């Protein structure tokens, strides 16, 4: 049975070590989905610097960077980036879960909780995301949280040495399934 205690919280600098361990261990598994990163990205120091940058963006109101926690352990991240206020009222959602914790519903629950944060705490009306055409697991997470596909961007992202197509997804935060409390 899947763990029902999935939660999210703002990322902290002291999360760098566990995030680096997950990312280093899962480096090959994520190579098919994410752009290449320098070797430093997979180290505690590299993650510490990245997290400090995320938190600086958060203080400016440009990003909401969180970790996904299950049974008291950080198992992934979920981030709202490219936050646009005013007439757009939207943010871009990205997430990952360590391979050892995949397939247990953590991403689906974390995304649902993040959508509630986007609406309630960030005052946003719209969430957007992208997935590779082949990433059926991520598409399932988005569909389960009320996202709808709205287009395909051809040659949108350079991953694993080639330009890849991506599906664009949207969720109006006042429509669809009820938002989960974080």
What does this structure look like?
The protein is of the alpha+beta class. Helices cover 31% and strands 34% of the residues. It has 5 helices and 7 strands; from the N terminus they run βαααβββαβαββ. It has helices at residues 16-25, 27-31, 44-60, 106-120, 136-144; strands at residues 7-10, 64-70, 73-84, 90-97, 126-132, 148-159, 162-172. The chain has a 7-stranded mixed sheet, with helices on both faces. β3 (73-84) and β4 (90-97) form a beta hairpin. α1 (16-25) packs across α3. It is globular. 33% of the residues are buried. The model has no long low-confidence stretch (mean pLDDT 92).
What is this entry, summarized?
This protein has 182 residues and is α+β, with helices and mostly antiparallel strands.
Output the number of helix runs: 5
Low-confidence stretches: none
Our measurement of the CA-to-CA distance between the termini, rounded to an integer number of angstroms, reads 21 Å
Please tell me how large the radius of gyration is.
Answer: 16 Å
Mean pLDDT: 92
Overall geometry: globular
Helix share, percent: 25-40%
Q: Please state the structural category.
A: alpha+beta
The major pleated sheet works out as:
7 strands, mixed
Strand order of the largest sheet: 1-2-3-4-5-7-6
Tell me how many strands there are: 7
What is the ordering of alpha helices and beta strands?
EHHHEEEHEHEE
Strand content: 25-35%
